[in-house]
Amino acid sequence: MDTASFQFVLFGLAAALVSNFSRSRVWRSAVLMAASLAFLGLLAHEPLLLLPLAGFLLLGYISLVLLERGLSRWLVWSILAVLLAYIWLKKYAFLPEGIFLHSPYFTLGLSYVFFRVLHLQIEATEGGEKPRIGPGAYLLYTLNFTTLISGPIQRYDEFARDQFASEPIALGPRVVGLQLERIIRGFFKVNVLAMIFDMLRVDALAQLGYNLPLSLKLYAAFRLAVLYPLFLYCNFSGYIDIVIAVARLMRVQLPENFDRPFTASSFLDFWSRWHMTLSSWFKSYVYNPLLLVLMRRISSIALEPFLGVFCFFVTFFLVGIWHGRTSEFLVYGLLLGGGISINKLWQVLLTRSLGRKGYRALAANVIYVAFGRGLTFSWFAFSLFWLWADWSQIGKAFTALSALWWIAVWAAVWLSATTVLALWEWLRAALLSIRTAGGPVLTSRYARTVYASALGLAAFVMTILLNQPAPGIVYRAF
Description:
- By secondary structure, the protein is an all-alpha fold.
- The chain has helices at about 5-20, 25-45, 50-70, 75-90, 110-125, 135-145, 155-165, 175-210, 215-250, 265-270, 275-295, 305-320, 325-365, 365-385, 385-390, 390-400, 405-430, 445-465; strands at about 435, 440.
- The protein starts with 5 loop residues before the first helix and ends in a 12-residue tail after the last helix.
- The model has no long low-confidence stretch (mean pLDDT about 90).
């Protein structure tokens, strides 16, 4: 049920159908609450497994009530309490084993609940009159089944605007059709494309351990490097497509989480397109406050651009280590933080060297953009080794070839990504240029209907033929 399976899709559609029996916000909220609790029950199986999660939610709500009553001086302590509870429940490896709960309990979705609770705490101390958040609204927001497992991370004011509106957002036949199309597209991504990419990746990893000719090992290393980013995108964005569509059918507009990330020409641009709600959350609550504090303490205009470089490193280092509890994720954080801070430093130095106008001209150059796009993909692919593999797998992969051959592999990844992504952008622009009076043929209602029908049929046939369980959503583990 926690994957993009037929069961999950049917569950979501059933909840959406019942939700639309009445336009009343009380009815819609009751249906969302019932669906969310049922979803939790289906995942946990035993109510006792949910007790630590219930305790975490209670801690968050008590701190929220105190902050809403004007005790803003408790903000730091409230955040620390929630943060420590989260680290404890997630069993981070740097804590002593003896302090953990050793009986099994449910933590699926805890990371995204954590983000929402911290968001409520911080926003409660901001100025201006705000309505207090009751326990029902708090639970609806934190346990919303469409965002529980893997996001997207929605702000409370956006959620409340739609969920508690006396006149819910419109839901006509065209909107329903678009959401059903999006569900089919997401289902196809997860259950067909992601499954194929993952099978090929597992095969490539196995081949690296075999006694094969060098040419075959190089090809296996190349496939291992390029396949996981494609798998992760299809797996994660496909699930997000499904939940955004289900939420829209329940008259709630969730924020988008992806915007064609592999078209990004820099690592900075990439993180404005990949898991957008996560990077936006960290920008709001880590990057911006940290930069503001540093700018108040360091008044040098010459150093000001470099403060941004440092803040980007800290922010994306934290993004990296949020993904997991072990030392592999420390390296992942260093690679994310290092990649994005070096990218920012490159921009700062080029702007100083070429001037703003010269840098803008360079950044618009087609060749520069193409190579930047390929390098961005390559660095992300390299970083992801520390997301999907443990130290044993990483050691086996990187000792299968010499350092020089691995450098050659990553150079081939860069050049291949540069070429393939440039050709893809050219092909996409060419297809979208074929127009009628109503707009591009490729995005017409008839083309979309044929496209969605073909994807739906292919997904259904592949699912039946492969007879495999729906692949787990990678980000549910974080």
